[in-house]
Amino acid sequence: MSIAHDSVVPVRSQTRRTIVKGAAWSVPVLAVGAPAAHAGISQCTVTGSVTLGPAGRVRLDAVCRDLSQSGAFAVPRIRTNYGLVFLPSYVEICNCTSDPGWYRFRETDSLDNFQIEVNGQHNDQNGPGAGFRDPFKLAPVGQAGGCQRFSLTYRTSDPRPYSDVATGTPPSGSRDAVQVNLVLQRHPSTAAVAPGANDPGWVLNTSLPFSGYAWRTTRPEPDFNSCSAGQSDARTSSAAPSADSLGD
Length: 248
Fold this sequence. Notes:
InterPro entries: TAT_signal (IPR006311). The protein is mostly beta strands and about 250 residues long. It has one domain (about 10-240). The chain contains no helices and 13 strands. The chain has strands at about 10, 15-20, 50, 55-60, 80-85, 90-95, 100-110, 115-120, 120, 135-140, 145-155, 175-185, 205-215. Strands 1, 2, 3, 4, 5, 6, 7, 8, 9, 10, 11, 12 and 13 form a 13-stranded mixed beta sheet that branches. The chain is elongated and about 55 Å long.
């Protein structure tokens, strides 16, 4: 079987999406259940892949506006479990070439005052690095270290619509829609030290758009102008996070 450039490759489970870029190929599609430490030939095409975890109900925390663009780890919350998002909880990136390579990515979103954390850290898309994460080196396809998985967490610094829906997503009007675009770049360098942020060798490897929703499950609203942690809430039991997800 041969699939042309920029194809969306179907996977066995509809709970994950895999986007691949590059020349035509004739190897099996990415095995979504494979360990993150390996990038076997059955996982890859010739250039690279990005796999999103299944979309599901993931915790949304609240932070004050003064800290909304902070890139520090463990930014203080004014309320944990403020609400929920229906988005993936991780992204996995694989090197699908026979050479080691450096990769970096950024994620940009369409929702004002909404932040995505990768491994617990936000990176301002309007900052000096244009939102790109630190580079990481991946081993060649088929070797240990050929894939790396990153956890995704979410926070808001602005009020969101309220809903106490117990499963799935709220109806329109009781949720905010969010569009996210993940851009992955590769650098051909095999050096032990990562290329600089402005090195001209960085080139587009994959662009992956995805979408979801965000909503509040607690009352009353916290004061987003105050950075006082632990502002009280009255959570409704039916709005507690659940493990349900699309296709599961």
